Amino acid sequence: MMMIDHSDDMLEDIFAQARAVAPTPSDDLMARVLAGAVLPTPPAISAPRASVGKRLLDMLGGWPAVSGLVTATFAGVWIGVAPPASIQDYTAAYFGDEVSVSIFNDDAVFATGDLTDG
User: Fold this and answer.
1) Do 95 and 89 meet the contact criterion of CB atoms below 8 Å apart?
2) Which of 44, 65, 71, 75 is the most exposed place for a label (fewest CB within 10 A)?
3) Helix (H) or strand (E) holding 87
C-alpha cells in the first residue's frame, strides 16, 4: 500500500509568495480612474408621480374594468328610469301598488299670498 502525503507545504509556499508581492495598478489604469473621478455625475431624475386619476384607474383594474362599471351603471339607471313592463309587474307584486301621497294640499301652498299678485 502506498502512503500519500497529505501535507500542503508546497501549496502554502505558493500562497506565501503570492501574498508577499503587493499588486500595484498600472499607471494607465490609475489615469483612467482619476479622469473619471473628475467628471460630475448627472443629477438623478425622479420618476414622475402618477396623478390621482391614474392611481384610481389602476386601483379599479384599468380601462376594461372601468368600462364595465360604466356600462353596468348606465344599464341600471336606464332600467330604473324606464323599466320594461315585465319588471314593473314583478316590482308591483313585490313592493305592492304605487301610492302617491301629497304632504300639502293644493290650497295651502298659495294661502300665504306671497306667490300671488295683488
Assistant:
1) no
2) 44
3) helix 85-95
Q: Which residues make Cβ contacts (< 8 Å) with residue 1, sequence separation at least 6?
A: none
Task: For the chain, 118 residues long, give each residue's pLDDT as a single digit of tens.
Answer: 566 666 778 888 888 888 888 888 889 999 888 887 777 778 888 888 989 999 999 999 999 999 999 999 999 998 888 877 777 777 777 777 666 666 666 666 565 655 555 5
What's the maximum distance between 2 C-alpha atoms anywhere in the chain?
137
Q: How far is CA 108 from CA 15, 47, 63, 104, in A?
A: 112, 66, 53, 6
Question: What is the Cα–Cα distance from 15 to 21, expressed in whole angstroms?
Answer: 10
Joined together, the cell numbers standing for residue 9 give 507545504
Task: Residue 53: name the closest of 62, 44, 45 by CA.
Answer: 62
Question: For residue 49, what is its C-alpha cell?
Answer: 408621480
- Say what the alpha-carbon torsion angle 51, 55, 61, 63 is, to the nearest 10 degrees: -10
Any idea of the CA torsion for 55, 61, 64, 66, to the nearest 10 degrees? -60
